Amino acid sequence: xxxxxxxxxxxxxxxxxxxxxxxxxxxxxILGFMRENPVHPxxxxxxxxxxxxxxxxxxxxxxxxxxxxxxxxxxxxxTIDDTFKCFDGNVNMHAHLMCMECKTIFDMPMPExxxxxxxxxxxxxxxxxxxxxxxxxxxxxxxxxxx
Amino acid sequence: xxxxxxxxxxxxxxxxxxxxxxxxxxxxxILGFMRENPVHPxxxxxxxxxxxxxxxxxxxxxxxxxxxxxxxxxxxxxTIDDTFKCFDGNVNMHAHLMCMECKTIFDMPMPExxxxxxxxxxxxxxxxxxxxxxxxxxxxxxxxxxx
DNA sequence: CATAGAATTTAAAATGGTTTTAAATTTGCA
DNA sequence: TGCAAATTTAAAACCATTTTAAATTCTATG
Lengths: 147, 147
What we know:
The structure is a homodimer of 147-residue chains.
Chain A: H1 9-18, H2 25-36, H3 43-50, H4 59-71, E1 76-78, E2 86-88, E3 94-99, E4 105-109, H5 112-119, E5 124-137, H6 138-145
Parallel strand pairs in A: 3-5
Antiparallel strand pairs in A: 1-2, 3-4
Chain A binds a DNA duplex (30 and 30 nucleotides) through residues 22, 24, 26-27, 42-44, 56-61, 63-64, 67, 83-85.
């Protein structure tokens, strides 16, 4: 299930408040960006995207806010690549593919049995599930062949 | 399928050579450690475990060697936790659970459908598959309840 | 409405795991 | 044995992220 294309400030504010987070302008903008953009941005990318909108925004705030949103389950953190940490505003369970060449991250539905595997775990209380597949995307494969 | 408990130097040497890696004493020791110990050590841990055996061993060599072994598929890298990078000497496909409290990483068989999911991917050539489940282990759950 | 206290944001500095550099050492091969 | 290439090492550099401390903003209360 994907997110909506557009969220109102009131919706974002309500989401933050429901999580017990004080809805500041920075937090609303960051959560809004994560909800509306079906990408997997790093903190740097979020900062670059929003620093026009909020002139005073600092990279520190973006880092701290994303961490806060992750801790409250409003955003999830992806560690698919060891060289950068990125975030996903779609917290519905799904798998991720990453092209090792162009670093693009693609969403995929989570295979059926993963949910039942996780539910069936004994002696372990699951909180977060990530399925990561790294490989080469079609575009990069073609590029390689023609060179 | 787990690894053996004990590997001979000749076996390790042969594995390195088959991968086109020159079998130095450091590389043999590091690969041996990874093969024989069913844990998920960081570079620091590998270094600490082997620096007695090889007095001159440097942490740099451990980092570089683990990277080399991963590049050649002899060892796999886990990015289950965003605060550390660790390694697995068992390259057979399996899932990982990590306790968010004590940070212990447990091996689990990979659920059936994941392999077929990966094989069924179109327009994407898979190279590495990781299923990570983060949560709370039994021991830590009990500890929390009694406090 | 004024104001104080608390929370948040910010810039700057610090942190720490990892990589790079360059020199020293070791290895394989003639 | 000796040389060229590869590897290892210690030290320095790197850089994404966190911490610090001061400035700002928000909220509650009189």
